[in-house]
Amino acid sequence: MLDTSPLAPDCFPDLPPVAGLDMAVSEAGIRYEGRADLWVLRGQPGTEIAGVFTRNNAPGAPVIWSRRALTARVHRGAPRLIVVNSGTANVFCGRKGVQAVCETAQGLADVFGGTPESVLISSTGIIGEPLDPSRIIHKLPEMKRGMSDNLWEASARAIMTTDTYPKGATATADICGRTVTINGIAKGSGMIAPDMATMLAYIVTDAAIGQDALQTMLNEFNATSFNAITVDGDTSTSDTVLLVASGTVGYDKITDAADPALTDFKFALSSVMLDLAHQIVRDGEGASKFITVNVAGAVSDQSARAIAFSIANSPLIKTAIAGEDANWGRIVMAVGKAGEPVDQDLLTIKIGPYILAANGALSESCTGAGVEAYMKNAGIELFCDMGLGKGCFTV
Q: Which of 20, 21, 226, 344 has its CA 20 to 30 A from that of 180?
């Protein structure tokens, strides 16, 4: 049992039921003993799903299957199903891995109805170990009998691997005068890097929104949440983020992401995704500090992103912050090695509220005592103003 991260929230949030969705968890014994390691989420017929997946060039069989399932035509009367197992990633398992996802999808279709194409699959855990699908299939009848609309914390725990705490977030929004709910759960604590980290995240809502609109919003907010976090610079083979809309709230389904009726929903969705992304970073293996890197004044947003990740991924900067040392020279180094336009005479560097360097030189107004005290905080903010343009990005 791992010690809970010192950066963990005080408790798991109270996530309400979401109409049109129910779930179950089970102990399938895939790798762990005495804990749930299997989760099934069921959406009523008509449920819409969008997804983004790892860009790692060695994706697992579940990722390959789910990418295809998202674009498959599903019978209008069929439920949508998501199944997640922890303990074994089903990656680099050859034909056995492919067969495992095929048998798992068929097993869910047999028990819950629909076709295999209505099933999305995620697996997380050890790479290279074959997944025995019979362990999952054997549990499905029992899980169907135990479906509930309010098992969020148990579900978040079931998908954990090296996580030290379950991760959840919730928000509400107004669409067409109706209140809709957005819930999310996630797992992840190692191989955290752009392209979403070693992570799984499932965001659900009762809003009535078409798949194309969901996909557009998911792509947009993924870029500034799950794709804007890093701990160890590695990119996993199993990353998956799914956005599920049951459509039970009573108004005409919205099919255009640019519809003004979605303004409040977008804000709430973004906040849930960012909350989950932050929780993943706070649970990074060995993490003792939560660091936010803000880059502004770059020639473009893309340039700012490259500089921000160069800073965030620098081992020298990480060790300095872990040692509570405000070594701003290492930030200058990381800015320069990003390969983006830099004018040293325009560069400003801040740690927290303290300006350490401005106009290419040490700031005369900086006092050592204040910065030293600030570096002892659990949360550290780094800020670089490039002075070149309007590009900005936060990691």
A: 226
